[in-house]
Design a protein that fits this description.
- The complex is a heterodimer of chains A (about 650) and B (about 325).
- Chain A is of the alpha+beta class.
- Chain A is built from 23 helices and 19 strands.
- Chain B folds into three domains: about 170 residues, no CATH class; about 100 residues, no CATH class; about 35 residues, no CATH class.
- Chain B is about 30% helix and about 30% strand.
- In chain B, the strands form five sheets. In chain B, strands 2-11-10-6-7 form a five-stranded antiparallel sheet. In chain B, strands 1-3-5-8 form a four-stranded antiparallel sheet, with no helix packed on it.
- In chain B, strand 15, helix 5 and strand 16 form a beta-alpha-beta unit.
- In chain B, helix 1 runs antiparallel to helix 2 and helix 5 packs antiparallel against helix 6.
- Chain B is elongated and about 95 Å long.
- Classes of the chains: A alpha+beta (about 650), B alpha+beta (about 325).
- At the A-B interface, helix 5, helix 6, helix 7, helix 8 and helix 19 of A face helix 1, helix 2 and strand 6 of B.
- Chain B: Pfam families: DUF58.
- Chain B: Keywords: Membrane, Transmembrane, Transmembrane helix.
- Chain B: This is DUF58 domain-containing protein.
- Chain B: InterPro entries: DUF58 (IPR002881).
Chain lengths: ~650, ~325
């Protein structure tokens, strides 16, 4: 984009432009995969250094661009949001290579400003916003420097320049804030956000034993929960996510066809719990809910198996007010197709487990069906409790994973336990399914809310017993309850190397982050409505909201306009009052001519209006004295101004 | 477009710029910036991405404020006076524009322009003088053109501009003829036309007087005496020149003027006293020096542009 007509940037301007571009790039680099982030960061520095004296040749630029794209393709393959962001970062890192004129500088700063916005598509945390604000400030400083170069303005001090830009922000602030709070929001997006091509760990709609490993090591938050009224015991905190029905020998899958059916009949025990769940972005429409959700807010629903869903994918922090209760009976009549589905096992897999299940069914004998089933489940739990151990250190699965686990290895984590338990149950003729979600939570004493971390991800089982319906059974809890319910101190967040020192820091940090989510990220069309409720403006339509926004924006603009007008105002109150007086005479056709001295004018006025003129002559003399004679006292000045204001022709 | 802008007529100085005559529009980079902001706002709204929205709105607010700031750079500015030393037609006039403001606000990066000629100036609280080069085409009184005062400060996103159209004229001397015959014979030596010999040895050195041509300074002698000395040809030449309109008879009208202008310069350079006789005008008495030269050249410059009234006087 080298333009022969645009003048070259000065040295100071170049430094500022590159600095602004680097500041814009920084938050984006922090969100990219580490290899890309560091690579592009170093690359940008090298490009700036290499092109400092003269622009890089086009061929070299092209080759570097190719390398960068190749790196993106290798690290973040596919087409997705993070790929697009990485490409943007690469382009920005290369752009300084051809930046020498004022126009180049402007376009670099302009394109650079896209980087903070791209960052917010990946992360909306307060750190990103702080970095972005700093970048925007530097970008405006660079623009100011470029404008100064264009206008041949002498160098201003760094402090003076910063004050100038900050003043611009302050001037625009009322309008920006009014727009932020009142600008009509879209309840549903016009077009969707592209998926990330690099999956962030989260609950999946499938489960392959061993697949949750990454999730169990990720201590980042998945949800924050605030209870109103009764709080469940940690042992009751099962956050229900996808329910997995179908097993192909390796992988459990969700029954998506059940999503269309209404929730099964359920009888709950007691009033249950009232709570609000702030869910971190899931990038899909999967929600989680405590135990069995009995009431879901607008925009959410439960499918046949009580998997909670949102009607749209959640790319931002979302907030759901829910009610849940433990069931007394849950789908007490299981329709035959569902029963068959909950008993299905792929043929030819895990023969030893299937044999064991059949053997147990035979041994259960002639007891009533319900009691026999319960006894079998209890028997399996007893076996697990007796012989099994919890470990995250599991070798890769073989063909008959459940057999290996149950008969040889006898150790594993929640996925292995739940998968093996359900297979065993199905083999012994008991309908069973795997439920995934989170178990347990950490109570943050600051703010008194519960934090569910991704490492709390869990898989358990549900077996169907006659008369009671689906019953939750957690075989992992039989072995390692402390893993499931966070009952050991080592599972406290912020605890490092056995020291509690950082726990308060973590607590405070997470509390701040929750406030941020609450205040900034959670603001949407719905919250906007509730914000206006105290003003008596609830249930405003989009048009009324637009009108209100228009009114407030007009006020903010008027404020800016007033600043303009004030700029033209005479600063000296004495002169202002005197000019106002002159204007009053001018309206009567007796204005003072530009060349006319004040007292001469007063004498002229007095000639045809003796009464007013005499008074005017005295005033004119006092004004001249105040202006040109040794300085009068403050009191006398104030009095003179008052007299000038009072005088009427 | 220019015709529609204020001021629509010539105005007396001092002229004060106020909001009625200041125009503000985004620059090309301002439009580009606006496009970027629009894209960002649309994206942020669509994805309900509050941090992005907040940042885009802050930027938009600052950009809007920069429009106002650009306006404030000009608002309250006063053009107190314009003036220029006369130059010969074809040379550039150095138009000096005295600027001041009532308030102490800093105004940087002001651009004063007429067509493609521009000057940049910053205004300090006591006022300042901008110097703008104006090309001249012909002798006579040249009206001050409509001047454009503009600024793109502070961010280069918006340009504020205003016009000033002072009701004032600038004098342009006639361009002296390039190849002219020597000066005519002095009044006292009629019959013995003598070419002026610039290389003559000076008889006499005298102290420098303001208005002496730099060429007549005797630099070596001055260096010896520690003050400026001037070769005085006056003694040598003696008589007073009369530069008469009639001496140029037979030439085209404009060339007659240019020849006289050249002779005035030559006489001045040689340090001779000269008088100027123009048709239908009293004679300008013999004298010498800068103010005399100005008087003579002014009279030449102000001769009618059209020859017809003088032809009768020529007879």
């Amino acid at each position: 984009m080298a333009d022969a007509h645009s003048p070259q940037m000065g040295r100071a301007a170049r430094v500022q432009v590159q600095l602004a571009a680097a500041a814009c790039l920084l938050p984006l680099l922090l969100q990219l995969p580490a290899s890309l982030g560091i690579g592009f960061g170093l690359g940008a520095l090298a490009v700036i250094a290499a092109s400092w004296r003269r622009p890089m040749p086009a061929l070299l630029r092209l080759m570097l661009g190719g390398c960068a794209l190749l790196a993106v393709a290798l690290v973040a393959p596919g087409i997705g949001r993070d790929t697009a962001c990485a490409v943007l970062a690469a382009m920005l890192a290369l752009k300084p290579a051809e930046t020498s004129t004022l126009r180049d500088g402007r376009s670099l700063v302009g394109f650079g400003l896209f980087a903070p916005f791209a960052t917010f598509l990946l992360d909306q945390g307060p750190i990103s916003l702080l970095l972005a604000l700093a970048a925007v400030l530097l970008a405006l400083l660079a623009l100011q420097r470029l404008a100064a170069d264009e206008g041949e303005v002498a160098q201003v001090s760094a402090r003076g320049a910063t004050v100038g830009v900050v003043r611009l922000f302050a001037l625009g602030l009322p309008l920006a804030l009014a727009a932020f709070w009142l600008f009509p929001r879209l309840p549903t997006p016009l077009w969707g956000l592209p998926q990330r091509s690099i999956a962030t760990p989260g609950l999946s709609d499938t489960m392959t034993p061993g697949g949750m490993f990454d999730l169990l090591l990720d201590d980042s938050p998945a949800a924050r929960v605030q209870f109103f009224g009764a709080t469940p015991a940690p042992q009751q905190m099962y956050w229900r996510g996808p329910v997995l029905w179908d097993f192909d020998g390796r992988t459990w899958r969700q029954a998506h066809d059940l999503q269309r059916y209404p929730a099964a009949p359920m009888q709950s025990a007691g009033a249950g719990w009232d709570y609000r769940i702030d869910l971190e972005p899931t990038e899909n429409s999967q929600l989680i809910a405590l135990d069995l959700p009995t009431q879901l807010p607008d925009g959410a629903y439960a499918s046949r198996d009580y998997t909670p869903w949102a009607t749209a994918a959640q790319y931002n922090v979302s907030r759901w007010r829910m009610r849940s209760a433990p069931p007394v009976s849950f789908e007490a009549d299981l329709p035959p197709p569902l029963r068959a589905r909950a008993l299905a096992l792929p043929p030819g897999y895990n023969p030893r487990t299937v044999a064991l299940g059949r053997q147990w069914r035979r041994e259960a004998g002639s007891a009533a069906r319900g009691r026999a089933d319960a006894a079998i489940a209890e028997r399996a739990l007893a076996m697990i409790r007796r012989d099994f151990a919890y470990t995250l250190n599991v070798p890769p699965a073989g063909r008959n994973e459940v057999d290996d686990f149950l008969f040889d290895r006898k150790e594993g984590y929640c996925e292995h336990f739940s998968s093996a338990f359900v297979v065993l149950m199905r083999a012994s003729g008991i309908p069973a399914r795997v439920v995934t979600g989170y178990a347990g939570a950490y109570r943050n004493p600051i703010g008194g809310y519960w934090l569910v971390r991704k490492s709390d991800a869990h898989a358990w089982a549900e077996v169907w017993l006659p008369a009671r319906g689906w019953v939750r059974v957690d075989p992992t809890a039989a072995v390692a309850p402390e893993r499931v319910y966070d009952t050991i101190a080592d599972r406290q967040p912020g605890r490092i190397a056995g020291l509690d020192a950082l726990v308060p820091v973590f607590n405070a940090g997470d509390w701040l982050r929750r406030g941020w989510n609450d205040f900034v990220l959670g603001f949407n069309a719905q919250r906007q409505q509730s914000l206006l409720k105290p003003l008596g403006l609830d249930k405003l339509g989009a048009s009324a909201l637009a009108a209100l926004f228009g009114a407030i924006a007009a006020l903010a603009l008027a404020w800016m306009a007033w600043l303009i007008a004030r700029g033209e105002r005479q600063r000296d109150p004495l002169l202002r009052a005197w000019h106002a007086l002159e204007a009053r005479y001018r309206r009567l056709g007796r204005g003072r001519a530009p060349h006319e001295a004040a007292q001469r004018w007063a004498a002229r006025v007095a000639a045809d209006r003796p009464r007013a003129g005499e008074h005017l002559a005295a005033l004119a003399r006092r004004v001249s004295d105040a202006r040109y004679a040794p300085i009068a006292s403050r009191e006398a000045l104030r009095e003179l101004v008052r007299d000038l204001r009072r005088h009427r022709p | 477009m220019r015709a529609l802008t204020r001021p629509r007529a010539l105005e007396a100085l001092p002229a004060r710029l106020d909001r009625h005559r200041i125009y503000v529009l985004p620059t090309a980079s301002g439009l580009f910036f606006g496009l970027l902001l629009g894209t960002m706002l649309l994206g942020a709204l669509n994805f309900n991405n509050n941090p992005a929205l907040l940042l885009a709105l802050l930027l938009a607010g600052a950009a809007l404020a920069s429009l106002i700031a650009a306006h404030m750079q000009l608002s309250g500015l006063r053009i107190d006076a314009v003036a220029a030393e006369p130059v010969a037609a074809g040379e550039a006039l150095h138009l000096r524009i005295a600027l001041a403001a009532d308030d102490a606000r800093q105004r940087r990066g002001l651009r004063i322009a007429h067509e493609e000629h521009a000057a940049h100036v910053a205004l300090d609280p006591r006022g300042t003088t901008a110097e703008l080069r104006l090309p001249t085409a012909r002798r006579g009184l040249m009206p001050v053109p409509k001047l454009e005062l503009s600024t793109v400060q502070p961010l280069g996103l918006a340009r504020a501009w205003a016009y000033a159209w002072p009701a004032q004229s600038l004098l342009v001397y006639p361009a002296p003829e390039a190849q002219a015959p020597p000066l005519p014979v002095p009044a006292g030596e009629q019959g013995h036309p003598q070419a002026a010999r610039a290389g003559d040895e000076p008889h006499h050195l005298r102290a420098y007087r303001p208005g002496d041509a730099p060429r007549s300074v005797a630099w070596k002698a001055s260096a010896r005496h520690d003050n400026l000395l001037v070769r005085d040809y006056e003694q040598q030449r003696g008589g007073e020149l009369l530069l008469d309109w009639q001496h140029t008879a037979g030439l085209p009208y404009e060339q007659r003027i240019r020849r006289l202008a050249r002779w005035i310069d030559d006489a001045e350079r040689e340090g001779r006293r000269y008088a100027l006789q123009l048709p239908a005008q009293p004679v300008i008495a013999g004298d010498q020096g800068a103010s005399h030269r100005h008087r003579c050249l002014r009279a030449l410059a102000l001769l009618p542009q059209d020859a017809s009234p003088l032809e009768q006087a020529d007879g």
